[in-house]
C-alpha cells in the first residue's frame, strides 16, 4: 500500500540521521535511539528551527541571525530547507565539523551527519533500486571509459555511498535510461552538495569523485566551460590533499588504489578536454619524464615531486611487467594532449616547419614512437585479434576492450591530425615564404590517408561486433577522419574518390550513433553537415557527387580539429556557470562559416612516370598556387590564393586502400548499423591488416 505523503515526511523528520541514511525504521528515542545505542554509534537528529521558509518571515534579518546562531552552535537545519525550493541558492551551512564522529575511510560513518542534514529527502528523490540501476548503467557504459574512480566491490552497498556521489552517478547515467529529464535536477543537487562539503571543510574522496563524474557529464553535454570548472576544482582538491604526489602513497592505506585511480582519471579527462593555451593551463610537457621514462630512470633525488604511481591494472596482462591497458591508453592520451597543443599553435599561426628536428611535429612523433616500446605484446593488434572475438565475449570483458579500443583510436587519430592536409594548406596561406617540400607532402598525404582509413576499419569492426562505445572521443576521432575523407572526395582517380565517399559516410554514421546521449557529438555532427554543404555547394549530397574541387570552411575545420562544439549552449556558452555580466564579449560574435573558405583541388595524374635515378622524388610535383580570386579576406583569414595540393602515389603503392563497392552505404541513410563489416574475408585484407596497425 503506498505510503501517505504527509506520513512519509513526518517519519523523515523524526528519524535520526543514521537511520535515514540506511533507510531503516528508527525508534526515534531521544537523546539516542536504541538502534544507534546497539551499534555503539553517535545518534544525531536534525533539529527544526523556529522559523519556516515555507512562508516569509516578518523580520528577514532576525531569521538570518537565527541561522548564524545555528551555525555557531553546531546545530542542524530544518528538513524544510529543501535544495529544490531555492535551486539558485546554496543552503546556508549549519553543521559543526566537531560533531562529525570519527570514522574509518569509506565506512558508513564518513557521510554523517553532513549531507543528510540539509533536508535532502533521499527516500523521495531516489530509492535503493534507482541507485542500484544507476550503478549498473555506470559500470555498463562509463566504467574505465575513460574514467575509473571506483570498482564494483567498493560500491556494492549503495547505502554507504555519499549523497553527492549518488547524485553525480545518476546525473551521468540518466542519459542512458528513460530519465533524461532528471539530469539537470540531479546535477544541480550534486553541485550544491559538493559546494556544501567545501564550505564546511568536510571534503572526502567521494566528493572529488563526484566532481570527476560531473565533469565527464558536462563534456558529454558539450558544456566544456562547466566541465573544465568541475575538472579544475577536482584537481585543486587533489593538490590540497596531496594526491598528486608520489610521496603521499608511501604509507599503506585501504583507499590508496582508489585515490590513484581518481587522480589519473582526472588526468585522462584533462588530456582530452582540458583547456589548451591558457596561462593557467599546465603544459603537457611537464609529465614527459613520467610517461617516457622507465622505473630505473626516475630521478630519486626528486622522488617526492613525482606524480603518484599508476593504479594496478592486470586485465589482459601476461606478466607483472606488462602495463595495464587502461594505463597504456592514458599514456597515449598524453601524446594526444600534445597534439591538441600542436593544433592550437597551428590555429594561432605558430607553426614551425614540421620537418625540422626541433619542431613540435618531430617531438610528438618521437614521443609516440617511444611509447610504442611500452606496448606489451599481449596488447598488440596482432596478438589480441579483436576481429576474431565473438560479440558476447567482448561484452563480457568490456572493461578491457573499451580501453583497448580507446588506445587504438587514439593512436590512429594522433597520426591523422599530425598529417592533416588542412594544417599545412593553411600554414602555406598564412606564410607565403613557407615552402612545403615534395617529400613531406607525399609522406604526410599517404600517412594521413592510411590512418584515417584505419579509423574507418576500426569503426567497421566495432559495428560488426555490436559493441557500443560511449566516450565522445570516439565520435571526435570519426569526425576528424571524416574531414580527411572529405578532402580526398575530389581526387582525380575514381577509386580514391569512391573510397573517400564511402569512408566519409561511415564516419558520419558512426558519429550519429552518439547523438542520442551526447549533445556534444550532436553539435559535431551539425558542423560536419555544414562543412559538407559548403564543400559541395549544394544542400544535398548524394551518391552521384563527384567533385573536381571542394571548398573547405576554415572556421568549421578548426572547430572539428579543436573540439569547439557547445551543443545547445551556443547562444550562452557559459550557461550554468557564469552570470551574463562575466561572459566574454567575443563569444557573442557570429562566425561567418561560408565566406572564409579554401578552394582545394586534389590534382592527380592518372599516369605517373617515376625516374628512379633521383630516388623517386620526381614522382610528385611541387604544390602550385595559381592566382585565383577567393572569398573576402578578414584579419584572421587572409587567404588570397587557392592551393593545388600535389599529386600523390597512393594509386600505385597502396592497393589495400580500395574497398568492396558492395560496402558503400548511401549518405542519406546514416543510421547506426546492426552489422556491417569490411572483414568478411580476413585473408583478402592481409596486405592491409599487416601494415599500419599498433
From TrEMBL:
Compartments, record wording: Nucleus
Annotated Zn(2)-C6 fungal-type domain residues: 15-45
GO terms for MF: DNA binding; DNA-binding transcription factor activity, RNA polymerase II-specific; zinc ion binding
- What InterPro entries does this protein's entry cite? TF_fung, XnlR_reg_dom, Zn2-C6_fun-type_DNA-bd_sf, Zn2Cys6_DnaBD
Top-level taxon: Eukaryota
| Matching Pfam families | Fungal_trans, Zn_clus
PROSITE patterns registered for this protein in UniProt: ZN2_CY6_FUNGAL_1 (PS00463), ZN2_CY6_FUNGAL_2 (PS50048)
Its keywords, alphabetically, are: DNA-binding, Metal-binding, Nucleus, Transcription, Transcription regulation
User: SMART domains, from UniProt?
Assistant: GAL4
Q: Which Gene3D superfamilies match?
A: Zn(2)-C6 fungal-type DNA-binding domain
Q: Which GO terms describe its cellular component?
A: nucleus
Q: Name one GO biological process term.
A: DNA-templated transcription
Report what the protein is called: Zn(2)-C6 fungal-type domain-containing protein
The protein's organism comes out as: Penicillium angulare
Lineage of origin: Eukaryota, Fungi, Dikarya, Ascomycota, Pezizomycotina
Amino acid at each position: 500500500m503506498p505510503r501517505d505523503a504527509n506520513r512519509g515526511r513526518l517519519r523523515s523528520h523524526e528519524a535520526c540521521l543514521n537511520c535515514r541514511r540506511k533507510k531503516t525504521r528508527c525508534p526515534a528515542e531521544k537523546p539516542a535511539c536504541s538502534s544507534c545505542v546497539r551499534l555503539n554509534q553517535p545518534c544525531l537528529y536534525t533539529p527544526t528551527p523556529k522559523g519556516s521558509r515555507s512562508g516569509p518571515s516578518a523580520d528577514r534579518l532576525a531569521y538570518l541571525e537565527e541561522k548564524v546562531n545555528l551555525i555557531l552552535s553546531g546545530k542542524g537545519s530544518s528538513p524544510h530547507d529543501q535544495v529544490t525550493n531555492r535551486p539558485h541558492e546554496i543552503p546556508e551551512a549549519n553543521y559543526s565539523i566537531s560533531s562529525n564522529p570519527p570514522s574509518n575511510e569509506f565506512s558508513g560513518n564518513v557521510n554523517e551527519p553532513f549531507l543528510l542534514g540539509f533536508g535532502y529527502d533521499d527516500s523521495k528523490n531516489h530509492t535503493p533500486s534507482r541507485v542500484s540501476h544507476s550503478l549498473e548503467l555506470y559500470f555498463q557504459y562509463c566504467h574505465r571509459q575513460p574514467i575509473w574512480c571506483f570498482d564494483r566491490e567498493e560500491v556494492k552497498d549503495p547505502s554507504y555511498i555519499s549523497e553527492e556521489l549518488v547524485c553525480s552517478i545518476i546525473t551521468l547515467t540518466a542519459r542512458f535510461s528513460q530519465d533524461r529529464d532528471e539530469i539537470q535536477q540531479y546535477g544541480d543537487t550534486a553541485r550544491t552538495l559538493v559546494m556544501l562539503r567545501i564550505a564546511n571543510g568536510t571534503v572526502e574522496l567521494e566528493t572529488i569523485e563526484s566532481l570527476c563524474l560531473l565533469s565527464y557529464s558536462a563534456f558529454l553535454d558539450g558544456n566544456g566551460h562547466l566541465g573544465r570548472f568541475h575538472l579544475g576544482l577536482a584537481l585543486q582538491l587533489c593538490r590540497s590533499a596531496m594526491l598528486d604526489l608520489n610521496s603521499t602513497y608511501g604509507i599503506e592505506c585501504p583507499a590508496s588504489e582508489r585515490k590513484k585511480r581518481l587522480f589519473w582519471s582526472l588526468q585522462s579527462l584533462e588530456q582530452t578536454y582540458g583547456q589548451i593555451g591558457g596561462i593557467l593551463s599546465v603544459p603537457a610537457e611537464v609529465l614527459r619524464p613520467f610517461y617516457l621514462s622507465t622505473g630505473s630512470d626516475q630521478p630519486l633525488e626528486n622522488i617526492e615531486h613525482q606524480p603518484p604511481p599508476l593504479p594496478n591494472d592486470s586485465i589482459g596482462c601476461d606478466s607483472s611487467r606488462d602495463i595495464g591497458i587502461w594505463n597504456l591508453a592514458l599514456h597515449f592520451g598524453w601524446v594526444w594532449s600534445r597534439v591538441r597543443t600542436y593544433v592550437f599553435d597551428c590555429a594561432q599561426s605558430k607553426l614551425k616547419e614540421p620537418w625540422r628536428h626541433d619542431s613540435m611535429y618531430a617531438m610528438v612523433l618521437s614521443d609516440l614512437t617511444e611509447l610504442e616500446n611500452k606496448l606489451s605484446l599481449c596488447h598488440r593488434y596482432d596478438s589480441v585479434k579483436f576481429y576474431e572475438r565473438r560479440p558476447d565475449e567482448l561484452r563480457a570483458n568490456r572493461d578491457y576492450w573499451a580501453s583497448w579500443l580507446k588506445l587504438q583510436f587514439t593512436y590512429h587519430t594522433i597520426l591523422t591530425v599530425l598529417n592533416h592536409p588542412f594544417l599545412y594548406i593553411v600554414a602555406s596561406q598564412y606564410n607565403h615564404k613557407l615552402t612545403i617540400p615534395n617529400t613531406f607532402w607525399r609522406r604526410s598525404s599517404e600517412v594521413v590517408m592510411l590512418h584515417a582509413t584505419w579509423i574507418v576499419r576500426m569503426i567497421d569492426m566495432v559495428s560488426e561486433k555490436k559493441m557500443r562505445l560511449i566516450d565522445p572521443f570516439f565520435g571526435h576521432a570519426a569526425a576528424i577522419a571524416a574531414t580527411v575523407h572529405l578532402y580526398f572526395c575530389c581526387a582525380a582517380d575514381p577509386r580514391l574518390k569512391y573510397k573517400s565517399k564511402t569512408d566519409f559516410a561511415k564516419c558520419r554514421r558512426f558519429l550519429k550513433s552518439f547523438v542520442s546521449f551526447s549533445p556534444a557529438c550532436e553539435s559535431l555532427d551539425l558542423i560536419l553537415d555544414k562543412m559538407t554543404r559548403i564543400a559541395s555547394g549544394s544542400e544535398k549530397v548524394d551518391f552521384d557527387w563527384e567533385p573536381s574541387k571542394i571548398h573547405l570552411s576554415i572556421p568549421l575545420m578548426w572547430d572539428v580539429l579543436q573540439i569547439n562544439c557547445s551543443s545547445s549552449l551556443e547562444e550562452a556558452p557559459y550557461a550554468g556557470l557564469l552570470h551574463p555580466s562575466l561572459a566574454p564579449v567575443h563569444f557573442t560574435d557570429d562566425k561567418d562559416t561560408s565566406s572564409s573558405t579554401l578552394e582545394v583541388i586534389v590534382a592527380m595524374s592518372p599516369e605517373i612516370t617515376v625516374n628512379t635515378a633521383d630516388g623517386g622524388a620526381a614522382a610528385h610535383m611541387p604544390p602550385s598556387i595559381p592566382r585565383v580570386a577567393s572569398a573576402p579576406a578578414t584579419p584572421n583569414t587572409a587567404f588570397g590564393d587557392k592551393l593545388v595540393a600535389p599529386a600523390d602515389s597512393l594509386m600505385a603503392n597502396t592497393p589495400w586502400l580500395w574497398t568492396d563497392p558492395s560496402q558503400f552505404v548511401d549518405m542519406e541513410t546514416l543510421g547506426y548499423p546492426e552489422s556491417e563489416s569490411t572483414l568478411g574475408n580476413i585473408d583478402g585484407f592481409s596486405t592491409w591488416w599487416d601494415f599500419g596497425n599498433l
